[in-house]
Amino acid sequence: MQTVRDLDSLRVAIDEFRTEGHRVALVPTMGALHAGHMALIEAAKARADRVVASIFVNPKQFGPNEDFDAYPRKENADAAMLEAAGCALLWLPPVEVMYPDGYSTNISVSGVTEHLDGAARPGHFDGVATVVAKLFNQVQPDIALFGEKDYQQLAVIRRMVTDLNVRIEIEGVPTQREEDGLALSSRNIYLSPEEREAARVLPRALGEAARAIAAGGDVAEALTKARGMLAKAGFDPIDYVALHDAGTLDPLTVFDRPARLFAAARIGRTRLIDNLAVE
């Protein structure tokens, strides 16, 4: 596996892939890799000849009181995992390459960012859209893969690619979970043993609500019950438990179209998010 940190070396490597006629996949990450990321790499290998992974902890998608400084960074361990998984190239740009002196461009996607984390974390998705657009321009992949755990992020990227006529396929990969249902996340390492035990209530509450709604139950009642389960388990604050259109992410009060159930809540100092399809 090649590891590159500057744009010239990246472009040489990508040009070599293209000269050899290879289809290229990109898996953007912020590092602190786990089995969920490895599922993205495996899916990418099935859809392309060469897989490029990027690791960049993007300061523009963190708010002023969020965990940018504390976010786990495990470059050597991450590189070893990617190489073992068959990744062809690791793109490791420093901040000064991504945002050099004088950088002043921002990409903002409206509509799908108006609710959920778009409301709870102002500016977050501008940072996501901006860094992903830069990664797309740098790597110029044929396909890029993102996890459905960050479903709103996936919707933002799909909207951006459509609106800007970007010729890159976007593929979502199902959320990877622990045996007790907790979605894999780099932030799970923040959880104490007691918090980890309580955290399993999040997927359980969403699952019960999703089943109730799919069976024709009252949406507001199901959401209220899920919030109660989270509060009883010690989640505080609860940012949202909500039902939204699976495509537009418009909020729903009745289940009359493909939908997604979303939740975000804090247990101790760790903010967890999750979502489930309602079918």
Automatic annotation (TrEMBL):
One of its GO terms (biological process) is pantothenate biosynthetic process. It is an enzyme of class 6 (ligase). It catalyses: (R)-pantoate + beta-alanine + ATP = (R)-pantothenate + AMP + diphosphate + H(+). Keywords: ATP-binding, Cytoplasm, Ligase, Nucleotide-binding, Pantothenate biosynthesis. (R)-pantoate binds at residues 61, 153. Belongs to the pantothenate synthetase family. This is Pantothenate synthetase.
